[in-house]
Amino acid sequence: MIGQFEIHGGVKKQLQTYLEEKGIDLKTAMDAEQTNGEVAAIVHEGLPAMVKKIYSLPKMQTFFWEKKDLMVDYVAQRLEAAEKKPKGSKNNNQKKR
């Protein structure tokens, strides 16, 4: 499950706004069950529809909570990767003609 999602720019902005409003960092958010569930909900909302059908919100929230130490690092890495990706890039590796 963990390798099957990518955080796109919209989710990154939502997470940043959420963390700023709460006045916490990602690690702090992931360490408390309520905010962990809210972070999972933000990430879940940004998933493709098919993935959301496979991984329901309650299932993702449980996974985020049970694997919080792993997920804080993974989400931070995904956020960093989203930051490095050129704006509007689909990264489909197709050559322009």
Protein model, in words:
With 97 residues, the protein is mainly alpha-helical. It is 68% helix and 0% strand. It has helices at residues 9-22, 26-31, 33-45, 49-54, 57-66, 68-84. α1 (9-22) packs antiparallel against α3 (33-45) and α3 crosses α5 (57-66). The protein is globular. Residues 93-97 have low confidence and may be disordered.
Residue share in β-strands: under 5%
Radius of gyration: 14 Å
Total number of β-strand segments? 0
Mean pLDDT, to the nearest integer, reads: 83
Number of helices: 6
Structural class: mainly alpha
The low-confidence parts are 93-97
Distinctive features:
mainly alpha; disordered C terminus; 97 residues; single chain
